[in-house]
Design goal:
single chain; mainly alpha; 3 helices
Length: 120
């Protein structure tokens, strides 16, 4: 006799296993037990019910804020407040050129004409 360990595992034929398992898999199922859940690929009524609920919720999210906003009373924007002072033609205020724009304009014109500096 041979005392060496045998590491070879004997597996059954895959084809034989498939053929013996395909018959019961495709056969008619036995009757369900009283407490067993319904069998089906998809629970269609539950899916349709949840879609209807989601649709109603989506419509409510879109419509309700718009309705609430339209229910508030209209408040026109405030009128702009301008400080307008009217003067008659003989009472116009006298203004001075504190920035020196008038002097600079004449200096540029004098340089362009070549008149030099100083009063003319």
């Amino acid at each position: 006799m041979n005392d060496a360990p045998n590491f070879l595992v004997e597996w059954p034929s895959r084809w034989d296993e498939f053929l013996t398992a395909i018959g019961p898999a495709l056969g008619k199922s036995p009757e369900r037990l009283a407490g067993e859940a319904p069998v089906g690929l998809f629970p269609w009524w539950g899916i349709l019910l949840s879609w209807a609920f989601e649709l109603l919720l989506l419509i409510a999210v879109i419509v309700v804020p718009a309705k609430l906003a339209s229910m508030q009373p209209y408040e026109p924007p405030p009128k702009p407040k301008y400080d307008i002072i009217y003067y008659s033609s003989n009472e116009l205020p006298r203004t001075e050129d504190v920035g020196g724009a008038e002097v600079a304009r004449f200096q540029l014109a004098d340089k362009a004409l070549g008149l030099g500096e100083g009063p003319h």
